[in-house]
Amino acid sequence: MIDIVLKKDTPLKDVLEIGGDCDKCGKCCSYGSGFMLESEVAKIANFLRIPTDKFRKDFLEETEIFHTNLFKIRPMKKDGKPYGPCMLLENSKCRIHEVKPLHCRVGNCSDHGDDLHTWFIVNHCLNIYDPESIRQYASYLETGGRVIQGAELDVLFPDKSKLKSILNYERFR
Ligand code: SF4
Ligand code: SF4
């Protein structure tokens, strides 16, 4: 296993190296699916030779993390279970391996798995210029959400009075 402490500002190349530590057995993709950013949709639809609108409709579910819109790849739900394999998993292999979304590229089942997901959400979903995003991140932390070095509220917002006014709904912009 790669010995590194993941921080908010760990560069993508190092994060990809940790995330790439994967045997591609397809087990994790059999129980859940990854997130896809809006900026990744067209390229992946194009790879699959499916019109982008149809790809969105057939394969993706809109979701939101920290007030940022993104997509979850639909699971193939069976037998009334709330989960299932990712729709893009075929014979235990990812159909879009060459172009799979960043969330899938940076995630794995190693001891770093939870930190890798946290790195993704703090860098790609938390928007420090959007007060609502900050409020949602603060409640995530309050309720025990995982934090990585450099993503603590007091590090991200050294100006305590500004942070307080955001958290007290005195600032909306
Ligand atoms: S897109 Fe590929 S890697 Fe990502 S969850 Fe689906 S099958 Fe797994
Ligand atoms: S992350 Fe782990 S469970 Fe998922 S495909 Fe790689 S080795 Fe298998």
List keywords for this structure.
5 strands, binds iron/sulfur cluster, 8 helices, 173 residues, three-stranded antiparallel β-sheet, single chain, alpha+beta, globular
Secondary structure elements and pairings:
Blueprint: H1 12-19, E1 35-36, H2 38-47, H3 52-59, E2 60-65, E3 68-73, E4 89-90, E5 93-94, H4 102-106, H5 113-124, H6 131-142, H7 153-156, H8 160-167
Antiparallel strand pairs: 1-3, 2-3, 4-5
Bound molecules: iron/sulfur cluster (2 copies).
Describe what this molecule looks like in 3D.
The chain has helices at 12-19, 38-47, 52-59, 102-106, 113-124, 131-142, 153-156, 160-167, and strands at residues 35-36, 60-65, 68-73, 89-90, 93-94. The chain is an alpha+beta fold and 173 residues long. It has a domain at 22-109. The strands form two sheets. The protein has a three-stranded antiparallel sheet with strand order 1-3-2. Strands 4-5 form a two-stranded antiparallel ribbon. The radius of gyration is 18 Å and the shape is globular. The chain starts with 11 loop residues before the first helix and ends in a 6-residue tail after the last helix. The model has no long low-confidence stretch (mean pLDDT 92).
